[in-house]
Amino acid sequence: MRAQDADRLFYYLCGGLALGLILLVIGIGLTLLWGSLPSIKAFGFKFLWGKVWDPVNEEFGALPFIVGTLITSFLALIITFPFAISSGIFLAEYAPPRIAGPLSALIELLAGIPSVIYGLWALFYLVPVVRWFEMRLGAPPFGLGLPTASLVLAIMILPYAASITREVLKMVPQELKEAAYGLGATRWEVIRGVCLPYASSGIVAGLVLSLGRALGETMAVTMVIGNRSEMPTSFWDLANTMASVIANEFTEASKDIHLAALIEVGLLLFVITLLVNILARMVIIRLKVK
Amino acid sequence: MNRLLYRKLKDRLAFFLILVLALCPTLPLFHILLGVVKQGISSISLEFFIHLPKPPGEEGGGVGNAIVGTLMLALSASLLAVPIGILCGVYLSEYAKGRFGEAVRIAADVLQGTPSIVFGIIAYLWVVKPMGHFSAFSGSVALAIMMLPVIVRSTEEILRMIPETLREASLALGVNYWRTVLKVIIPTGLVGITTGILLSLARIMGETAPLLFTAFGNPFWNFNPMQPVEALPLVVFKYAISPYEEWIRQAWGASLVLTGLVLVLNLSARLLARRMGGHGR
Q: Where do transmembrane segments lie in this chain (chain B) (predicted)?
């Protein structure tokens, strides 16, 4: 009898903690909602498309940051796409195992470098390069701003996107490839005609997950985006993303409504990354069914 | 014949294009590593590791307090996250069937995908605001939440690979299920679980965003978890955007220490995972 009680107790302990994990996620959502209530009450849905972010006059609209986040993240994804796909194909199809193993391990190690160090590097090596280009092209030579932030984001999500692409390509059945080779296809024709179509939904899921990373990336972006809370009007502008405005202003927010507005930006960020991750998960589930 | 030549040419061309595109991105990645080593190595000295920072404008000083702070944050976050994470993983692999288990897995995935700055806000609202001041403890709460999903999922995966016969052998000897879990299943998967913990530590040690308004930073020695504490990533951030040359030099030094720490953690996790080879994986 006692033994059974102990077993049951252990079961409840583990189950309780697992339930706690679910409650933690719900709690995070509710806390963000509760924290941003003053701002939601004051601005309503106008918060989403208000173009003015003015802590002094207590007027808060998050559109500049939403736009900043979307521009930098999607640009990063577009820049990184050809490189990530090529790296994945190279590691999965071309490189001999003796090279592919260590090389992909190295890429994954580089993915572990803290984001603040990417920021430091970008600040001292990438900014001068971008400034040089801006001077050549006749744009205002800030060096900082949207293009720099997109570039550093692209570099940061590349290892991640590349390793997912590689994993997905490795899942393509050998028989399928051999059948194509048997018909006389060249290597490129096998990749183009068999591997990529088979892996396409997995690659898309990987890119969506990378996008999720880029959306929430904070430190490196904060250091090079220039931190200007106005609507960006050109590609070369200084800007702010949702994550960077929180990082910059949270400790300085002396008014309650300012803090609530920042928390609401956090809530938006939480909801957007949640949706992006659910999207990726749905693609993966469809992949498994196939 | 011409058609065959064309196809072969296309094959060659595709290979070279892929090779070039695949090798291009390794350049900035290596440049970062090289830059951190080249710029950081000049700051590294005994003083750098054990001294407090000096005020701006003065030469010298170190980041001893930040190293202590980072270790303190990592240790206390582990104390919070490791037991909970392992038991959640045990639940998922041993008990969970059906929808509830799936919900727990989704919760872990959501935590994994949530931006780290959001955990900073959460720890601020849950710990800093009620306490009334910044503290190392609030920072470790934020970091612990970030560690959880990694530990949960890796524990589950490892325990699932343990052969059913092992459980049955233990149960047949009359050992309770909970004892079987603690004495047979977890020890068998220990190497894999440790790998997961090391990976999660590597993930949080370099995190800056969740510490900005929780651990906050502190230019002095602090060993009290209820007080604000400095951390290496915070130092890198603060010094990097400062106008002082000496501070910027030290930012590179602190980056080198931090990169070293994270790479060592990642590498040892990888080596452990490889050594496990026959066991389980």
A: 66-92, 104-127, 133-152, 184-205, 252-273
pLDDT in tens, B226-241: 999 999 999 999 999 9
Q: Give the tokens for residue B54.
A: 């000096």
| B193: closest CA of chain A, how far (Å) | 16
CB–CB of A250 and B124 under 8 A? yes
Q: Into how many domains does chain A fold? A: 1
- φ, ψ dihedrals at A59, nearest 5°: -115, 125
Residue A27 inside a domain? The answer is: no
Residues of chain A with pLDDT under 70: 1, 288-290
Q: Is B15 on the interface with A (CB under 8 A)?
A: yes
Q: For residue A235, what are its two tokens?
A: 């590609």
* pLDDT band with cut points at 50, 70 and 90 for residue B1: low
Beta-bridge partner residues of B53: B61
CA-angle at A157, arms to A152 and A162, nearest 5° = 135
Measured between alpha carbons, how far is residue B253 from residues A58, A114, B218, B262 in Å? 41, 14, 18, 14
pLDDT given at position B279: 47
Reduced to 3 states, what is the DSSP secondary structure of residue B85?
helix
Tell whether B263 is within 8 A of chain A (Cβ): yes
Determine, for residues B116 and A218 on separate chains, whether the beta-carbon distance falls below 8 Å: yes
Point out the residue among A31, A216, A250 whose CB comes nearest to the CB of B115. Answer: A216
Strands (E), A104-209: none
Phi first, then psi: what are they for A181, rounded to 5°?
-60, -40
| CB spacing of A114 vs B205 below 8 angstroms | yes
Distance to chain A for B255, nearest Cα, Å: 6
Q: What are the φ/ψ torsions at residue B213 (nearest 5 degrees)?
A: -120, 35
CB A248 within 8 A of CB A55: no
> The domain that contains A207 carries what CATH number?
1.10.3720.10
Once rounded to an integer, what is the mean pLDDT over residues B61-71? Answer: 92
CA separation, residue A94 to residues A87, A89, A188, B15 (Å): 10, 7, 10, 8
Is A139 inside a domain boundary?
yes
Predicted structure pTM score:
0.93
What pLDDT score was predicted for residue B240? 93
ipTM of the complex: 0.93
B281 pLDDT above the threshold of 50:
no
User: Per the structure block, which two tokens stand in for A82?
Assistant: 């050809």
| Domain contains A20 | no
The yes or no reply on domain B66-276 and CATH 1.10.357.10 is: no
Per DSSP, B45 falls in state S
Segments forming the whole domain that contains residue A72: 36-289
In a domain, A42, yes or no: yes
Q: pLDDT tens for residues A54-70?
A: 999 999 999 999 999 99
